[in-house]
Amino acid sequence: MKKKLPKKSFWKQIRFKYKLSFYNESTLGEVWSFRLSQLSVLAYLSIFAFILIALTSMFIILTPVRNYLPGYLDVEIRKEILQNMLRADSLEEQIMAQKHYIDNVKNIFTGNVQIDSLDKQIADDSISYLTSDYDIPRSERESEYVNRFEQEEKFNLTALNRDSEETGIFFYKPLNGMISSAFDPDKGHYGVDITSQPKENVVAVHDGTVIHSGFDPRYGNMIILQHSNDFTSVYKHNDLLLKVAGERVIAGQAIAVSGNTGEMSTGPHLHFELWHRGSPVNPEDYIVF
Which residues of 260-278 are buried (b: 16+ CB within 10 A; e: fewer)? Predict the structure, then answer.
């Protein structure tokens, strides 16, 4: 009766080494050999798999291949997509305006438009929004505020001595939000801070020309507009600038996207300044926020 060999433990089994030898067929001499165990094979496979996963991850992270993965978009690509959307929207408006203009000119040359009705049709044309003659109806609440303000300022000598060229100017709100920090020139705060939801459109307060559009380490993305009547408006801490220096803008047109850029920014907001003849003025004296 054969004796049963003692059963080896699991640890000894995986550590048991096997010899793999290579022989010369002609001389039957051993050319090369090495010893392997189940544990060493498992270790080598684990190291190989780790190296393969690490190389694949580095290839995906450090190359543009990552942009093709679903759900992954780089910040710069997101900004470029937003910029392209805004450009496409502006281009569509320009194409529609150009189409209306060409149709009007065509009707004039073909005689389909009466000369007497030409001024009325041009006034109804979409191109007419470029003029600065705004007729914005007032709400009941705004009318009450204006009447109360006029009564309070009736005997104010400062208001009565204001230059006539400043009157009759309508300023848009640069951003829908609440004022978190008021105008205080004694503390070096020459504007107002307006807080709102992030990524909101910042609009021009009045018709003007962009005289500066760029990045400042302290104030982040900043844009400055020069208006008529010696007014200048400044918009700081933007996330994205939509206009470049030299461009003409109209009141209410989007010029930037609000954000939180620059060393002086403490959170998502817009720092807005209004200057007149080289001196800062309180924006709340001209704009109802």
Answer: ebbeebeebbbbbbbbeee
Bridge partners (DSSP) of residue 269 are 195, 259
When pLDDT is cut at 50, 70 and 90, the band that residue 160 belongs to is very low
Which residues are CB-contacts of 253 (< 8 A; sequence separation ≥ 6)?
203, 204
How many Cβ atoms from other residues are within 10 Å of residue 95's Cβ? 10
- Please report where in the chains the tokens 């609009």 appear, as a residue: 203
User: The tokens of 215 are what?
Assistant: 């990045």
Looking up tokens 């930037």, which residue turns up?
A: 256
Alpha-carbon Rg of the chain, whole angstroms?
Answer: 36
Cα separation, 210 vs 223, whole angstroms:
7
Q: Which residue has the tokens 């807080």?
A: 195
Rounded Cα distance between 5 and 287, Å, is 98
**Burial class of 247 by CB neighbour count within 10 A (0 to 12, 13 to 18, 19+):** middle
How do residues 50-83 score in pLDDT, each as one tens digit? 999 999 888 887 887 776 766 665 666 777 888 8
Q: With cut-offs at 50, 70 and 90, classify the pLDDT of residue 168.
A: low
Q: Which amino acid is at 121?
A: Q
- Residue written as token pair 């309180």: 282
For residues 10 and 271, give the distance between their C-alpha atoms in angstroms, rounded to a whole number: 72
Q: Which of 35, 37, 33, 34 is nearest to 8 (CA)?
A: 37
| Listed residue (205, 221, 202) closest to 213, CA to CA | 221
Calpha distance 197→203 (Å, rounded): 15
